Automatic annotation (TrEMBL):
Assigned protein family: Belongs to the precorrin methyltransferase family.
UniProt organism field: Allgaiera indica
Alphabetized InterPro entries for the sequence: 4pyrrol_Mease, 4pyrrol_Methylase_sf, 4pyrrole_Mease_sub1, 4pyrrole_Mease_sub2, CobA/CysG_C, Siro_Cobalamin_biosynth, Uropor_MeTrfase_CS
UniProt keyword annotation of Transferase present: yes
Keywords for the protein's UniProt record, in alphabetical order: Methyltransferase, Porphyrin biosynthesis, S-adenosyl-L-methionine, Transferase
Boundaries of every Tetrapyrrole methylase domain copy: 10-220
BP GO terms, sorted: methylation; siroheme biosynthetic process
Annotated signal sequence range: none
KW Mitochondrion (keyword) present: no
Name of the protein in question: uroporphyrinogen-III C-methyltransferase
Pathway(s) served: Porphyrin-containing compound metabolism; siroheme biosynthesis; precorrin-2 from uroporphyrinogen III: step 1/1
Length: 251
């Protein structure tokens, strides 16, 4: 594999992973060490940002669901302006830059300005959360696919194929879902999901302050109300230890 290069006047969209700097890829680390300007979102942890060059300029363009956010047009303008000035620019995004991260909007702005770009994939929160649970995102005989969905979009709570998500054995990672927990619960149960369906909430996945809250569809809103940090809802998955304990109780 060729070594990573970031040329002056270009932009690299870099996945920061879920937060643990040990989960950065080698290309991501190299990009951070080469960047003159790092434009990062709210989910890029301080431990990740510590790997930037001391002389690099850091600019936050964080967004928070139903909260204060830097307009997307502002983020686009910053990318274009700094690249046009000849800087090596890293657009640092939590997780993987291609998953719920407005990647295409920013690429479109760069294309319109004639600025070259590249993408450095990262580990997404669903993978980190599943690893913490000791569960596979897919399992032979249970589910042949997994859905990555968002709890809300630019218009509010996001609609999904609820019938498919409510099917027995369905597995889904729901990003940005904690404030939509009651909406998600209602839609799933309306389409036939059992109240006992496991839903595990993983807050700050992979970080030092990570929390894992096992719940069911029936208790999901109450569990989500206790979360402060970024969280992912793992529909259909319980921590492996909890599942083993439940089986022993039934034996």
């Amino acid at each position: 594999m060729p070594s990573f290069l970031l040329d002056p006047g270009t932009v690299a969209f870099v996945g920061a992973g879920p937060g643990d700097p040990g989960l950065l890829t080698l290309h991501a680390l190299r990009a951070l060490q080469m960047a003159d300007v790092v434009i990062h979102d709210r989910l890029a942890s301080d431990d990740i940002l510590a790997h930037t060059r001391p002389a690099a300029t850091r600019i936050s363009v964080g967004k928070e669901g139903f909260g204060p956010s830097v307009p997307q047009t502002r983020a686009n303008a910053l990318l274009v302006a700094h690249a046009r000035a000849g800087a090596r620019v890293v657009r640092l995004k939590g997780g993987d830059p291609a998953i719920f991260a407005r990647l295409d909007e920013e690429i479109a702005a760069l294309d319109a300005a004639g600025i070259a770009w590249q993408i450095v994939p990262g580990i997404t929160a669903a993978s980190a959360a599943a690893a913490r649970l000791g569960q596979g995102l897919t399992q032979r005989g249970r589910n042949a696919g997994v859905r990555l969905v968002t709890g809300h979009d630019a218009k509010g709570f996001a609609d999904q194929d609820w019938r498919a998500l409510a099917a027995p054995g369905a597995i889904a990672a729901i990003y940005m879902g904690k404030r939509a927990a009651r909406f998600i619960q209602g839609r799933l149960m309306m389409h036939g999901a059992a109240p006992t369906t496991p839903v595990t909430l993983v807050e700050n996945a992979s970080r030092a302050d990570e929390r894992v809250l096992p719940a069911t569809l029936a208790t999901l809103p109450e569990a989500a109300a206790g979360l402060d940090g970024p969280a992912i809802l793992m529909l259909g998955l319980a921590p492996r230890a909890a599942r083993a304990t439940a089986k022993e109780a039934l034996a």
